[in-house]
Write a structure and sequence with these properties.
about 200 residues, mainly alpha, 9 helices, about 0% strand
Length: about 200
């Protein structure tokens, strides 16, 4: 995967970064940490400059997230009703929860979108419920761009200063992502065991 990223970046420059970041958000297994980190290394070598790199990465992130937001927006949350009625036990929610979640996204969803930009594996997933709740296009785009710009800047700067040692971060990022995933799975199982439908 790293060789593919390096080759595409070398071939396409900032456009390559843009394409990779779009793909990273449409197909989450592609790691943004590596894409922007290698971009930062390219800046340190004089092959790129920092601001256009961050801009290309951020625009790609927004486009990739908007793909899932648009799907959710087109579907709407009302189409979930039969699915929730049938599988609510395994989802640990009932229809009142869905209605409450939709209202929450309408009022404070921008903070969820912003904060989730810093969470591995959930950065893309939040776009779908935001769209299904019909969160404002402008709010979604602005807060996605804000969170993405901060995240991408941090990764690019880390790549710039760490240079070739940037890949050593995988030793920390990988276990941290696994630990977070395990915690979420355990939390789901705990909720599943304790969940009772509302009357």
């Amino acid at each position: 995967m790293t060789d593919f990223i390096v080759n595409l970046t070398a071939w396409g420059g900032y456009f390559g970064i843009f394409v990779l970041m779009v793909l990273e958000n449409v197909f989450p297994p592609i790691p943004s940490e590596v894409i922007m980190g290698l971009g930062g290394i390219a800046v340190a070598r004089g092959q790129m400059t920092l601001v256009p790199l961050i801009a290309a990465g951020t625009v790609g992130t927004v486009v990739g997230n908007y793909f899932w937001y648009a799907i959710g927006y087109r579907l709407g949350y009302h189409r979930l009703r039969p699915f929730v009625d049938r599988y609510g036990r395994w989802l640990t929610l009932d229809w009142q929860h869905v209605v409450a979640l939709e209202a929450f996204f309408q009022s404070r969803g921008q903070w969820v979108v912003f904060v989730f930009r810093f969470m591995p594996a959930f950065r893309t997933m939040v776009s779908l419920p935001a769209g299904m709740a019909r969160m404002s296009h402008v709010r979604f785009l602005l807060w996605t761009a804000a969170g993405s710009a901060i995240w991408n800047t941090g990764l690019a700067v880390a790549g710039y200063y760490l240079g070739a040692n940037f890949r050593e971060l995988d030793r920390f990022i990988g276990p941290a992502a696994i630990a977070l995933t395990v915690a979420i799975v355990v939390g789901y199982l705990w909720r599943l065991l304790r969940w009772r439908p509302r009357a």
